[in-house]
Amino acid sequence: MKTRKLGTTEVSPLGIGAMSFGPFYGPTTEAASFAVLDAAMELGVTHIDTANVYAGGKSEETIGQFLAERPGAKDHFVIATKGAITKDDDGNRCFRNDAAHLEAELDKSLKRLGVDCVELYYIHRRQAEMPIEEAAEALASLVKKGKCRSIGFSEIAPSSLRRAAAVHPVAAVQSEYSLSVRAPELGLVQATEELGAALVAFGPVGRSFLTDRPIRPEQVEEIGGWVASNPRFEPENLRYNLEISDGFRKLAADMGEPAAAVAIAWLLAQGDHVIPIPGTRSADHFRELVRGAELELGEAELAAIETVLPVGWAHGDRYSAGQWVGPERYC
């Protein structure tokens, strides 16, 4: 499998988004997560992306247990994790980018993962009242202490990236990017490439809309949580989104490929610095996703995809008002 640059090393062209090692899209088990990780080792996928807040630390614990139990796993996987999302004294969600908080949270993450150092440590959400230069310095201090090899930010604007990179090299910026979320093309794709940073794309299969098993109306309430409060899953928006994305599923079927694989292949074609991190609770579904890293789309196929899913096709904002607290808007 070809590789792409991430931090100080090279990784497979796609990684594992380990938010799915918790109940974000429905219930799961440690055995199911282990099966995904086993499939990753078998298929040559080398990058795992997690965070301290995923399932309250359970995602990191699951990864740590796997690394401890599977021979060679620690050498096989390149791990990234995140910090900065926390709660204030009243229990309200807030963000902290100061060095003391980031180091304390990274120490906890390292313990859960069972490692001394991670390749990449992200600020998960920017603390708006702190200059991003100070946040970059806080992350850089952790590199100097040997607790991470490189630094990154999640959901920041291109302008913020440039300011942070002037303080310390930024290895990666994480952003939602897919055929249903094209905003990164208005500056972030370009800025990351210019600065030599990876654009690590979460949500690469459009929160299920770009797969052969999209979330259906009857599942929204059952899943609850984030999905139930997201505008794209509101009844009318969901009806349109399913109807339009059916054309993409048909196109993928005509190509003889799983829809998820075509979505991943499209994303990989947007730049050699783009690294999708799809999440799944199923090893079989993960194999479909990895197929996308092997699939090269021609100009005719790329044009056909753009025809059935033109820019701006998705109905509803990608976040609710509450979910938009933290990510930086830049267009």
TrEMBL record:
InterPro entries: Aldo-Keto_reductase (IPR050791), NAD(P)_OxRdtase_dom_sf (IPR036812), NADP_OxRdtase_dom (IPR023210)
Ranges of residues in domain NADP-dependent oxidoreductase: 13-308
Molecular function terms, GO-annotated: oxidoreductase activity
Protein name: Aldo/keto reductase
TM helices/strands, residue ranges: none
Keywords: Oxidoreductase
GO cellular component terms listed in the entry, alphabetical order: cytoplasm
